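Researcher: Quick test of sequence recovery. Tokens follow.
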């Protein structure tokens, strides 16, 4: 098993992302956010965009999971082999890619993409939206499988919290593949529950690193 996968076992990965037009949208700011998360106990960082990957990798010693979002619909999380290669070249220890069964912009299948990346020594994480996606990812030999896209592809209902049902299916069906829980882990209790279920690790983003959303949660209680 790759050392980066071993290093995140049993711990919390924090997603540090801000989007165009948001006040925190700057690689240096995301690097500072990542450093603060590591000081708080994060064993890994997930981040978006080549500049952010480079900036964060230069400031933290924990594994970095890199993605490149390109577009807003369909397959847009590291959508092509080129995007994935660029993430790896920017310094990502693990590259997360859309692992759904939807058409990929470059015409390659998911399996062809993983095979090419493995040939180049890239560790691949599958962002899945359904159990069928998970099966495809495992068959392709993906290094890590994740619940990231559950509730966002139309195949599964968007739950208020983590998709515990899908997580449980993944852990039970594929005990030899590291399973990460990502998506709507909004409280420490959520985190404790997914880890108690047997998740290899868990990714928390919004609840830690997106102050606009967190503020809105509080402000809505005053409405």
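Model:
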């Amino acid at each position: 098993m790759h050392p980066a996968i071993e290093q995140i076992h049993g711990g919390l990965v924090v997603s540090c992302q801000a989007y165009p037009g948001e006040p925190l949208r700057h690689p240096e700011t995301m690097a500072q956010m990542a450093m603060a998360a590591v000081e708080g106990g994060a064993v890994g960082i997930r981040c978006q965009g080549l500049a952010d990957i480079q900036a964060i990798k230069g400031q933290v010693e924990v594994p970095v999971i890199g993605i490149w979002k390109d577009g807003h619909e369909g397959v847009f999380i590291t959508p092509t082999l080129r995007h994935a290669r660029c993430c790896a070249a920017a310094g990502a220890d693990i590259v997360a890619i859309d692992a759904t069964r939807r058409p990929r912009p470059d015409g390659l299948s998911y399996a062809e993409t993983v095979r090419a990346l493995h040939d180049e020594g890239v560790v691949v994480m599958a962002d899945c939206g359904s159990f069928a996606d998970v099966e495809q990812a495992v068959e392709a030999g993906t290094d890590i499988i994740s619940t990231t896209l559950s509730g966002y592809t139309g195949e599964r209902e968007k739950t208020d919290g983590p998709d515990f049902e899908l997580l449980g299916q993944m852990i039970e069906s594929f005990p030899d593949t590291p399973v990460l829980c990502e998506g709507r882990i909004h409280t420490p209790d959520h985190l404790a529950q997914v880890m108690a279920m047997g998740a290899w690790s868990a990714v928390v983003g919004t609840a830690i690193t997106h102050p606009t959303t967190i503020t809105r949660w509080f402000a809505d209680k005053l409405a």
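The longest strand covers residues 12-16.
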